[in-house]
Amino acid sequence: MKSRNLFIGVLILFTGVVALLVTLHVFEFHWSILWSLWPMILIICGISMLPLNEYLKTAILLVALGIGCLLYAHESSHYEGNAVSRFFNRHFTVWDWDNDDDDDDEEYGKNTAVAEDAFAYDQHFSEPFHEVAKASMELDFGAGDLKLGGPCAELAKVDINSNFVKYSFRTERGDDQTSIFVSGKGQKKRYGKGNTNDLDMALCTQPIWSFNIDMGAADADLDFTPYKVENIEINGGACDLDIKLGDNGCDTKMDISTGASDIDIMVPSQVDCQIRIESAITGKDFKGFEKVERGLWQTPGFGQSEHQIIIDMSCAVSDISIERY
Fold first, then answer.
1. b/e map 93-117, b = 16+ CB within 10 Å
2. 113 Cβ contact partners less than 8 Å away, ≥ 6 residues apart
3. Is the pLDDT confidence value at 81 over 50?
């Protein structure tokens, strides 16, 4: 091997070994942690351009890669549920829900002019059940913990505990459909340790539901299994998504668009499922699916069951796992 190829060879060998260990599940790998170490790319490029012989450059490269491994190990040792959300919360996330175009900001500030450690909202909303064929939920959440759980007697029930977000709740009723809108407006403060923004939802099982959920750096546990779900649209930033879909007698279309995220989805084995994904750098684990073409996976014998689940995804640097149960 020529000395001028040594640098590239060592870099490719190192990358291959790491990829193999990840594939064999020797250690837990998170793209979000790797993404936080992106300046290492500049360091490696700079080393390759140094006017030194290949052996010395390779030695420097090995030292740099060793430092990178130590930094990754350090971040992993502080992993707290979702490394993606932790990184973005620490460096970028300052949430200010101000979705109104009116001039009520001054009045809002007067009404909430309390000490920061005393700023808290414990809110409970509900919409009484009435006969309706379809219902929709539009949620503007932001950062925090979001949960969709078991059914309730009302059409919708929302319980919130937050120390910096105040939510609004309104409904629009039509002849055969009711739309529910939930949105939050909060102080300009960083979401992180010591701050709380928890939202729990429960819904009625009778209507056919559609969801439009916008979130930021959120941990979302969404169990749709008790409900008849027609459409789900999720737009997020750095998210940790746990989604479970059920088979309740209708086709389901789900669109997910996120930044750097950890996404785990479970679909029922008795329902045909198709996955179409567009992603920059993504770790994919699709159990029980067959790859049809680039960016397209289907369950075996797709199109034979009575109902189908169609999942379209557009993600940045993410870990995605989809499994049949």
1. bebebeeeeeeeeeeeeeeeeeeee
2. none
3. no
Q: Which amino acid is at 44?
A: I
The answer to whether the CB of 164 falls within 8 A of the CB of 119 is yes
**For residue 75, what pLDDT is reported?**
66
Per-residue pLDDT tens over the stretch 254-268? 999 998 889 999 999
Q: Which of 4-8, 51-55, 84-88, 255-259 is the most confident on average?
A: 255-259
Separation of alpha carbons 117 and 111, rounded Å: 16
Q: What is the mean pLDDT of residues 234-245?
A: 93
Q: Which long-range contacts (CB under 8 A, 24 or more apart) does 164-169 make?
A: 164/95, 164/119, 164/189, 164/191, 164/195, 164/197, 165/95, 165/97, 165/121, 165/197, 166/112, 166/121, 166/123, 167/121, 167/123, 167/125, 167/199, 169/125
Q: How far apart are CA 156 and CA 126, in angstroms?
A: 5
pLDDT at site 17: 79
Q: What is the pLDDT of residue 77?
A: 59
Distance separating alpha carbons of residues 163 and 104, to the nearest angstrom: 21
> Is residue 80 scored above 90 in pLDDT?
no
Do the bridges between strand 228-235 and strand 197-203 make them parallel or antiparallel, or are there none, so unpaired? unpaired
Per-residue confidence (pLDDT) for residue 1, from 0 to 100:
47
Q: Which residues contact 249 (CB under 8 A, 6 or more apart)?
A: 228, 307
pLDDT of 243 reads 98
Residue 236, classified by CB atoms within 10 Å of its CB into exposed (0-12), middle (13-18) or buried (19+), is buried
